[in-house]
Specification:
The structure is a single chain. The chain is built from six helices and 30 strands. It is mainly beta. The protein folds into four domains: 103 residues, Triple-stranded beta-helix (Sandwich); 34 residues, no CATH class; 209 residues, Galactose-binding domain-like (Jelly Rolls), CATH 2.60.120.260; 94 residues, Immunoglobulin-like (Sandwich). The strands form seven sheets. It has a six-stranded antiparallel sheet, with no helix packed on it. A six-stranded antiparallel sheet has the order 10-13-18-15-16-19, with no helix packed on it. Strands 22-23-28-26-25-29 form a six-stranded antiparallel barrel. It is elongated. It starts with 17 loop residues before the first helix and ends with a strand. 33% of the residues are buried.
């Protein structure tokens, strides 16, 4: 017994009426003895058991016959109390309708020496007329049952959306939901960098001796003021995880071993004001892949429209000529002090600095008044001919945590780039004199502003079907999607006023409305 001073009467050696007390005690504990083995009545393969009362009904003492040389499963019906036996586990496993009593392993004549397992439940826990299952057990005040309503009402305290990786079988419900929310958020937040995977290259794939302000791959340009000379190219060199096909690579062709105070070189992108206005006062994170010949501190600069506010973030390249992933966060996001264009002009400047002189250096991790592109820790990537610096997977989104790069299909990415640069199409027009015609170009994707055209020879198709060169006039943009312009001084005056004609642009000609 569990208590050292049980409440049951104890029998002494001088006890009178021992039989009466003995029977009284057995009567007191008889519910626990129900379905117990009646050893005196059991013999060989005959299993005898004690009866009792089950859910108000009388269950008589009885016997069942064991099957030789196997495992027998003895159960009681929860509704009637009737005892049955089987060599299969169908009823044994049906604990809703049956109460497990004994598991008995036999030889050819009787139960084996260690073959009897008594699994009858403790009184009050499903046996002896107690609750048939957990539905009948009263609920406590601390360990509560799970119910549909309670599960639905469970709060998500501790939910973290810092990781957007795939949910695995080892995740808890809370961590799995956090990952899923991070993935949904990553899709919902648009990457503010265009052509971050360096896949679009309408101007060409290689640019030697790039000049300051020259655009290379779509939406990317170079800022340069140094005696060093570099080539920019779209190359099929990317991180080994196969997420990206291309990178933008800078290669030094003329070294600058000593960067003067005002010298610098950087790979830049200007983001349109409309696309960054919501970053004011809001954390944002830049993530990218980088490969550099130089180990050590490199800088990324963020600047405003008026070039009078700058934020510098440092990152460290730990292994030369090895792809590494970097993440930089601007806490608090953009500021409103200084000059900002929140419409279709230059909204935010993002620059990857390769070298910078002392007058363009400041302290990192805070907005500074002035135009800066690096810190005093910035390495000089231009110090040796053949040095490279390459980036891809550039992604800028709201939030303090990096998310997966936002891939879009090629056609969508190309249409985004068409707002700033697009092919100059062969366009219809009408001659209004023998040497001049006006043309209309419907471009579909709205351009950011009135475009300019690539320099080259533009020709009009004459009445006889030949081509004659002329002078391309100024462009006019209507509702962002219609460009009109004139071609004048057409050589030889071969046109007929009132006749239709077409303009034929030079090969590779572009309409450009870059920032």
């Amino acid at each position: 017994m569990a208590d050292s001073t049980p409440n049951l009467q104890q029998m002494t050696s001088t006890q009178a009426n021992k039989e009466a007390l003995f029977n009284s005690l057995f009567g007191a504990v008889s519910p626990s003895a129900m379905y117990g083995q009646n050893v005196l009545a059991s013999s060989g393969l005959t299993w005898a058991y004690y009866g009792g009362r089950w859910n108000g009904a009388a269950v008589a003492n009885g016997t069942v016959t064991l099957t030789a040389s196997t495992t027998n499963y003895i159960v009681a019906n929860r509704s009637t109390g009737a005892v049955s036996i089987a060599t299969t586990t169908t009823n044994w496993n049906d604990t809703t309708n049956y109460l497990r009593l004994y598991q008995v392993t036999t030889n050819t004549t009787a139960p084996t020496a260690t073959g009897i397992q008594d699994v009858r439940p403790t009184p009050g826990m499903g046996g002896g007329g107690g609750p048939a299952n957990t539905d009948a057990l009263p609920e406590g005040s601390t360990n509560l049952y799970f119910t549909t309503a309670r599960v639905r009402a469970t709060d998500l305290a501790g939910l973290s959306t810092a990781t957007a990786t795939a949910v695995t079988s080892s995740d808890t419900i809370l961590s799995g939901m956090g990952k899923l929310q991070a993935q949904v958020s990553a899709v919902a937040l648009t990457n503010r960098i265009m052509n971050g995977d360096m896949a679009i290259a309408q101007r060409g794939s290689s640019f030697a001796a790039v000049a300051n302000g020259q655009y290379t791959l779509d939406r990317w340009r170079v800022g340069v003021s140094t005696t060093g000379v570099v080539t920019i190219a779209q190359v099929a060199d990317a991180p080994g995880d196969n997420e990206f096909q291309y990178s933008q690579r800078m290669t030094v062709t003329t070294a600058d071993t000593s960067i003067a105070a005002g010298e610098f070189l950087g790979i830049q992108q200007f983001i349109e004001g409309y696309n960054v206005r919501d970053l004011a006062g809001r954390d944002f994170t830049l993530s990218f892949r980088v490969r550099s010949s130089k180990t050590g501190v490199h800088c990324v600069s963020f600047g405003n429209t008026g070039a009078d506010r700058s934020f510098i973030a440092e990152y460290t390249v730990t292994a030369a000529n090895t792809w590494e992933t970097k993440t930089l966060t601007v806490p608090g996001g953009l500021i409103t002090a200084g000059t900002w264009d929140w419409t279709n002009g230059r909204g935010l400047y993002v620059g990857f600095t390769l070298a910078c002189g002392s007058s363009l250096q400041t302290t990192p991790n805070a907005w500074q008044t002035g135009n800066y592109v690096g810190t005093a820790n910035q390495v000089n990537c231009l110090d040796t001919i053949g040095n490279i610096f390459a980036i891809t997977g550039v992604d800028l989104k709201p939030g303090a945590n990096a998310t997966a790069f936002q891939h879009v299909n090629y056609a969508t990415a190309l249409q985004e780039c068409f707002r700033y640069t697009r092919p100059f199409p062969m366009s219809p027009g009408m001659a209004y004199s023998t040497s001049a015609a006006t043309f209309r170009c419907d471009i579909g994707t709205p351009m950011r502003a009135t475009p300019s055209a690539t320099a080259g020879t533009y020709q009009a198709i004459t009445a006889t079907g030949s081509n004659a060169a002329g002078t391309l006039g100024a462009m006019n943009l209507t509702q962002g999607v219609t460009v009109t312009f004139d071609l004048t001084a057409v050589a030889g005056s071969p046109l007929v006023a009132g006749n239709a004609t077409f303009i034929v642009p030079p090969a590779g000609a572009l309409l450009t409305a870059e920032l």
